[in-house]
Amino acid sequence: MRFVIITGLSGAGKSQAVKYLEDFGYFCVDNLPPSLIPKFVELCQQTKGKINKIALVVDIRGGMFFDDVFTSLDTMEELGYKCEIMYLEASDGILVKRFKETRRSHPLSPEGSILEGITKEREKLKELRKMATHIIDTTKLIPSRLKEELREIYVEGKETNSLMISILSFGFKHGIPLDADLVFDVRFLPNPYYIEELRDFTGNDQKVREYVMKSPVSLEFSERLHDMVGYLIPHYIKEGKSQLVIAIGCTGGRHRSVTIANILYEQLKEKGYRVSSNHRDSLLVKERKR
């Protein structure tokens, strides 16, 4: 029997996660009082294998019952049940934005500020986070990517680390991304903007990629970037970092930065890292022309 507890911060995507696991054949229950977990699992055990994948959402909505989760987890261990904990989180700014978009108040601060509620919740959940089998940061994750992550972990059974790598291309003339951990400037590479037949395309187009990467300088930089990032990632994982944002910039954010970002994404993906990509400024020119 595979038993997963879904927990984490309000607004981090627990509702989406439980829907995806349900699609994957898990028997899911939302907001079950933690004290009932051992009894519920025993009932599932009596189905003689008909229910062999269970996912329960346990979070601070349980109110006064939430603290029972630690006692229940101890009981589960005594009974010989292996329990996986999936912890979902996101940055404060993204969580505030999501609450404002849905016009919801935070469960721990119904009449106060959303940020105050988030701070209280992080404190209340910190011990449970330490126990997590998988920590997923949804700050940069679109729903389809979250579903892919869950499929890899809970269907395909792939071993993953807790670090989520976000690769972001951008244009310096539009500003450096505020949340970048590492910033690389590729404005020294050959610029397709000055080639008339390439100007209106982006690094997502093969002919632009071929133009950029035919330069020996581009090839050497891409190799050195891959080597350096490959060296850094294990150290970030060792330090417990949950998210790494790698920003790659050129002048406008449409050609060179997109090309290099795509190549780095493909290289890290091939190595099995949890990685997503986003091209912040690649469509700005096209949008302005409309």
UniProtKB/TrEMBL annotation:
ATP binds at residues 8-15. The keyword Nucleotide-binding applies. Keywords: ATP-binding, GTP-binding, Nucleotide-binding. InterPro entries: P-loop_NTPase (IPR027417), RapZ-like (IPR005337), RapZ-like_N (IPR053930), RapZ_C (IPR053931). It comes from Alkaliphilus hydrothermalis. Residues 164-281 form the RapZ C-terminal domain. It holds the Pfam family RapZ-like_N. Coiled coil: none annotated. Residues 1-154 form the RapZ-like N-terminal domain. This is UPF0042 nucleotide-binding protein. Signal peptide: none annotated. GTP binds at residues 59-62. Transmembrane segments: none annotated.
